[in-house]
């Protein structure tokens, strides 16, 4: 399929990232927006028939509904349609977004992921954002560059889809620890330690899950970790602060769910990765956050 100047694009989900994608794309492309909860007084979009007309389908949703929704649209998708996910979490089966889409659509489908520093509020404010476009096909990357041409979302290509997917998913767990450290007022030196130790663990885990260790150091890993761990509006940083205060309610988010799915599906053994293991113990015992962090630091001596 030749790269075009204008695409028919279906945005699935109209939350923070769905609206950010709408902001980036509405001026140049023809958009259709589907959401489980349609806006009052706006005619609902029939998912299956809408998907059949699209060049590109953007999954701006958590990972959980990817498999179901992809299954619903599979029969009507054109053979040259490109399905793209920005979900940085796991579904209840322990699948990354790309694995869920591949299982639902089949190995012949054109699939891509976008991962990196992409805070939705900054995108909608016209500020620059950055992402790795993970796709095995050069033609799919060319389409994505055409899709976002003229916008402040800057892309780099990666064929290491597994690597950048796991880096994007797992970095949320480490971002929580930055919030814990800040909530306990452990200082800037602690942040420096967390950054280096987290990257050491992340590269080993990613490699063990089938990706390239180098993915941890690119936009989907280190780039997004810095953003998520330091942004004032970061949900995962705030989760860490809640843990530091001993809160047991409202502990939800992609990082929390990732921890639960790693355990439930035994995706890897957390014990050889002390920081990842610490995040799990903090989630189990938020009332003991200060004690757990103190014990962790003592073990470094």
Strand content: 5-15%
**What are the segments in which pLDDT stays under 50 over at least 5 consecutive residues?**
none
- What's the main sheet like? 7 strands, mixed
| CATH third-level topology of the largest domain | Rossmann fold
Based on the structure given, which CATH architecture of the largest domain is correct?
3-Layer(aba) Sandwich
Task: Tell me the strand order in the biggest sheet.
Answer: 2-1-3-4-5-6-7
Mean pLDDT: 93
For the record, give the distance between the C-alpha atoms at the N and C termini, rounded to a whole number.
59 Å
Structural class: alpha/beta
Count, helices: 13
What is the highest CATH level, the class of the largest domain?
Alpha Beta
- The helix fraction, in percent, is 40-55%
Number of strands: 7
CATH superfamily of the largest domain: NAD(P)-binding Rossmann-like Domain
Rg, Cα atoms, Å: 19 Å
Task: Using the alpha-carbon principal axes, give the shape.
Answer: globular
> How many distinct folded domains?
2
- Strand/helix succession: EHEHEHEHEHEHEHHHHHHH
What can you see in these coordinates?
It is globular and about 60 Å long. A seven-stranded mixed sheet has the order 2-1-3-4-5-6-7, with helices on both faces. The protein is α/β, with parallel strands linked by helices and 301 residues long. The protein has helices at residues 16-25, 47-51, 66-73, 97-105, 120-124, 138-148, 161-183, 188-208, 219-230, 235-244, 254-264, 274-284, 289-300, and strands at residues 8-12, 30-34, 56-59, 82-85, 110-115, 129-134, 153-158. Helix 7 crosses helix 11 (254-264). Strand 4, helix 4 (97-105) and strand 5 form a beta-alpha-beta unit. The model has no long low-confidence stretch (mean pLDDT 93). Helix content is 49%, strand content 12%. The chain folds into two domains: 8-159, 3-Layer(aba) Sandwich (Rossmann fold), CATH 3.40.50.720; 162-299, N-(1-d-carboxylethyl)-l-norvaline Dehydrogenase, domain 2 (Orthogonal Bundle). The longest helix has 23 residues, at 161-183. The chain contains 13 helices and seven strands.
